């Protein structure tokens, strides 16, 4: 059969815009559209990381073979670890090779008409999956699996299945149209398994189809299903799971080690909720993105900022800066936070023209103007886009920040923002970056941030293990830890034993440290995924070095080495699937096939048993407090009101009768 | 027509004013850390703050109902019971690990207990013994509910998720204790309403001087 090919389809894929999830079809009509027949998502959240399996079936209703290009927004810190294509009814797991080589292999296989697939990472924007051919009047099934560490903030875990639109470049949009509709069954199941008790699980996105059940003390299940063929992959699904707030501050440890080999560990420290309030006033510089891509979000962002300003302390001051192609002050001088001033800021924000590109640098530069040395200052930067005007490299931003003593807090709206850049800015200044899905309650996220900023933070954080040889710890530099945040490190250990875990840092200039002992086990094979998660954390460190202007070649080689050794799709490595007999012809080892099989068996094994507590300091607690502050309240409730109303009625009736 | 519960309406107006005034909730909420730093007004004002509309509605409605039921019975003691309950609840919560607290329900429990005990006596004195026992039965059921909530840590008959804050059964227990204390140490033994005095005297006469 004739294969309709796109000229340089793979190359073009490098410039497709960051739409939400969906099949991409050229708008020029050079290829008729395929259909997504089924889209099935299975997520398992287990002890600090999530495994997401996306099983998709494409349908080609036409009389010619076609190529499918499926794109989905890049989940935060995700490691794409499996691309499986069904060929002649059999599963064939992909292998990771250097990016250009993967493209060459895919191109050759496609040209020769053999079944092939390719998964690439497109910078910070998306994963693109190409499948060729989807046979005429036939279906093709693929499975994508990715791993990602999850953070728990103030006892609330948050998992996002990203689907909705990110930033959009109108020029690039002219090349592609996106087909997000699932014509058959769409299903999403998220299994949350934890040895720590959960209070509540909530879901945003597809609300009317969502069912949440607790099937066992350690298991909650979120189910979303649409069999009517009406589901559209254009809104995120955000799952929140709230832990019992009586949980203690603690140290969790997961390890993976086969006897005689190097082990891998993940240590997660949840500090006590004892950071003290900051009493002096703060100057807030609000820097808001008003570029074209914010058109659907600016009202929400402005309202959230206004409401958050309402909650600031009376001795705080603020100013507001807006930026698109350039930056301008919306509220120029420092203004005390009063209801009138907030109303005025809100009015001016709502009158702004939403247009143009995204010059983050100009916005930050304006936001840093007129800082006063004797006042604590903070910048809140809200953006949904990648920097596409002005300086775009992290090194330039770091040079700018180096001239000011200020913390920058970035709110990344949607899935298309340049997350590495905004996170890099926040981390370098001692602030934090917070992701905000459009499904999130932005006001709630801003308030959560304000709560953090109203308290002291642990700066210059160091988390070390002593007594056991430990190497290749990632991340190399830990960010400041704010109220309710966890501190996590991955690393390798050369031999088992008891190690002293020490957390140290500065709180309001004073050195503080805590320690406990943890056991790095001789043999533990429950979580083989830890190896990939560790490798991903290392890769992010090397990418940060590149972004900061370090030795690019050395770091790039290290990324390629880790990507191929641990089968991770990165900016420099891609995953390719070919017919089983063709792997050998292309000189590609089947290392990922074995790794995937091992991980699948481990996942199935974990589901057969109760969730095991990862707590490592139960016998020798590192902290003495709770992990989250409690906010309480209580209402009398409708039953009490009913009782009182009944009493009132009865009393009146009896009194009336008595008086007669 | 019975008189309006003006005292309850006044408290309800204060609650609504706090909810409607931007930024005020943060300055008034019961906050353990702020209290330790000397912001003692929060001991009283925290009860006027609410975490959301649902929380507010399910506190203001019973406040008005309690006003209609007991304001006349409690008379001048209304404010005393309210103040003692507020202080007992706020002070007692300082002994817990709670970071922040808001809501009127603890205080309502104090008003309800003190009011129902007084009303039971009033009904009994007026010869309406059935009604007096209804009050006592309701009091018993409420005390059992509060004890059950305190022991399990979970609220009965309340949608905790809709409140916007975690239920604190301890606040209800403290409020109830304050209500009992106010009743036990009441200084102005309830005044028999004018229209009951003659009826009471007649009953005393018929029963040989025993009330």
Short synopsis of the structure:
Chain A is of the alpha+beta class and 660 residues long. Among the domains of chain A are: 9-245, Immunoglobulin-like; 282-453, von Willebrand factor, type A domain (Rossmann fold). In chain A, helix 4 runs antiparallel to helix 5, helix 7 packs parallel to helix 8 (419-429) and helix 10 packs antiparallel against helix 11 (552-565).
Poorly predicted runs of chain A? 1-19, 167-172
Indicate the CATH topology of the domain at 9-245 in chain A: Immunoglobulin-like
| Assembly state (oligomeric) | heterodimer
Question: What Rg of chain B is obtained from the alpha carbons, in whole angstroms?
Answer: 18 Å
User: Poorly predicted ranges of chain B (pLDDT <50, ≥5 residues)?
Assistant: 189-195
Kindly report the spatial arrangement of strands forming the biggest sheet of chain A: 6-5-10-3-2-14-17-16
**What portion of residues of chain A is helical?**
25-40%
Please report which band the strand proportion of chain B falls in: under 5%, 5-15%, 15-25%, 25-35%, 35-45% or over 45%. Answer: under 5%
What strand line-up does the widest sheet of chain B have?
1-2
The CATH class of chain B: Mainly Alpha
Could you give the distance between the termini of chain A? Answer: 98 Å
Could you report the average pLDDT of chain A, rounded to the nearest whole number? 84
Structure class of chain A: alpha+beta
- Our count of helices of chain A gives 14
Named at the architecture level, the CATH assignment of chain B is Up-down Bundle
């Amino acid at each position: 059969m004739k294969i309709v090919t796109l000229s340089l389809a793979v190359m073009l894929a490098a410039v497709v815009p960051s739409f939400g999830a969906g099949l991409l079809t050229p708008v020029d009509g050079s290829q008729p559209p395929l259909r997504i027949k089924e889209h099935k998502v299975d997520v398992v959240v287990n002890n600090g990381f999530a495994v997401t399996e996306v099983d998709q079936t494409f349908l080609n209703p036409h009389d010619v073979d076609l190529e499918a290009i499926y794109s989905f927004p890049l989940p935060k810190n995700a490691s794409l670890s499996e691309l499986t294509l069904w060929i002649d009814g059999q599963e064939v797991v992909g292998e990771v090779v250097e990016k250009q080589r993967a493209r060459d292999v895919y191109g050759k296989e496609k040209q020769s008409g053999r079944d092939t697939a390719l998964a690439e990472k497109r910078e910070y924007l998306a994963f693109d999956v190409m499948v060729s051919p989807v046979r005429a009047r036939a279906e093709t099934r693929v499975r994508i699996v990715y791993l990602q560490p999850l953070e728990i903030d103030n006892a609330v875990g948050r998992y996002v299945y990203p689907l909705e639109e990110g930033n959009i470049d109108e020029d690039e949009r002219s090349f592609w149209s996106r087909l997000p509709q699932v014509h058959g069954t769409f299903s999403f199941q998220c299994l949350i398994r934890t040895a720590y008790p959960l209070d509540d699980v909530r879901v945003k996105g597809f609300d009317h189809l969502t069912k949440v059940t607790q099937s066992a003390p350690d298991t909650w299940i979120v189910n979303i299903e649409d069999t009517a063929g009406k589901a559209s992959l254009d809104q995120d699904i955000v799952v929140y799971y709230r832990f019992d707030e009586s949980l203690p501050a603690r140290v969790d440890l997961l390890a993976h080690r086969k006897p005689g080999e190097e082990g891998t560990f993940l240590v997660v420290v949840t500090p006590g909720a004892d950071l003290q309030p900051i009493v002096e006033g703060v100057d807030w510089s609000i820097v808001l993105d008003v570029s074209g891509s914010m058109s659907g979000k600016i009202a929400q962002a402005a309202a959230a900022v206004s409401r958050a300003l309402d909650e600031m302390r009376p001795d705080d001051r603020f100013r507001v800066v807006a930026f698109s192609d350039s930056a301008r002050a919306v509220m120029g001088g420092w203004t005390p936070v009063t209801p009138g001033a907030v109303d005025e800021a809100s009015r001016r924000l709502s009158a702004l023209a939403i247009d143009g590109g995204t010059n983050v640098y100009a916005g930050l530069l304006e936001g840093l103007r007129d800082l006063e040395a004797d006042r604590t200052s903070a910048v809140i930067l809200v953006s949904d886009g990648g920097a596409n005007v002005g300086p775009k490299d992290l090194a330039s931003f770091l040079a700018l920040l180096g001239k000011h003593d200020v913390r920058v807090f970035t709110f990344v709206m949607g899935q298309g923002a340049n997350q590495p850049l905004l996170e890099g800015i926040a981390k370098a200044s001692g602030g934090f970056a917070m992701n905000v899905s459009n499904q999130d309650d932005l006001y709630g996220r801003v308030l959560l941030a304000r709560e953090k900023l109203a308290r002291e933070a642990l700066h210059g954080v160091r988390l070390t293990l002593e007594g056991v040889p430990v190497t290749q710890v990632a991340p190399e530099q830990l960010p400041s830890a704010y109220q309710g945040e966890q501190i996590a490190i991955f690393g390798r250990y050369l031999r088992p034993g008891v190690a002293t875990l020490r957390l140290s840092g500065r709180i309001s200039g004073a050195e503080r440290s805590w320690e406990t002992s943890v056991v790095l086990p001789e043999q533990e094979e429950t979580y083989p995924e830890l190896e990939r998660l560790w490798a991903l954390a290392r890769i992010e460190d090397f990418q940060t070095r590149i972004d900061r202007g370090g030795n690019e070649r050395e770091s790039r080689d290290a990324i390629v080495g880790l990507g191929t050794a641990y089968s991770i799709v990165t900016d420099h490595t891609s995953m390719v699937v070919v017919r089983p007999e063709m792997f050998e012809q292309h000189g590609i080892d089947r290392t990922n096939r074995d790794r995937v099989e091992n991980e699948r068996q481990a996942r199935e094994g974990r589901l057969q048993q109760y969730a095991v507590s990862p707590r490592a300091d139960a016998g020798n607690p590192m902290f003495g407090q709770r992990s989250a502050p409690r906010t309480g309240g209580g209402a009398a409730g409708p039953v009490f009101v009913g009782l009182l109303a009944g009493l009132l009625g009865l009393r009146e009736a009896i009194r009336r009768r008595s008086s007669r | 027509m019975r008189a309006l519960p003006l005292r309850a309406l006044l408290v309800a107006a204060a609650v609504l004013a706090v909810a409607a005034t931007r930024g005020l909730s943060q300055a008034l909420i019961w906050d353990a850390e702020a209290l330790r730093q000397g912001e003692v007004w929060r001991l009283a004002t925290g009860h006027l703050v609410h975490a959301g509309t649902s929380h507010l509605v399910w506190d203001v409605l019973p406040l008005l109902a309690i006003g209609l039921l007991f304001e006349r019975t409690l008379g001048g003691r209304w404010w005393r019971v309210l103040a003692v309950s507020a202080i007992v609840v706020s002070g007692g919560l300082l002994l817990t690990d709670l970071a922040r607290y808001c809501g009127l329900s603890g205080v309502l429990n104090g008003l309800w207990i003190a009011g129902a005990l007084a009303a039971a006596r009033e009904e009994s004195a007026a010869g309406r013994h059935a009604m007096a026992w209804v009050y006592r039965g309701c009091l018993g059921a409420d005390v059992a509910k509060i004890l059950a909530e305190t022991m399990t840590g979970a609220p009965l008959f309340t949608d905790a998720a809709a409140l916007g804050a975690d239920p604190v059964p301890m606040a209800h227990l403290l409020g109830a204790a304050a209500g009992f204390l106010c009743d036990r140490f009441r200084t102005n033994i309830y005044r028999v309403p004018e229209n009951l005095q003659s009826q009471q005297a007649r009953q005393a006469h018929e029963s040989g001087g025993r009330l």
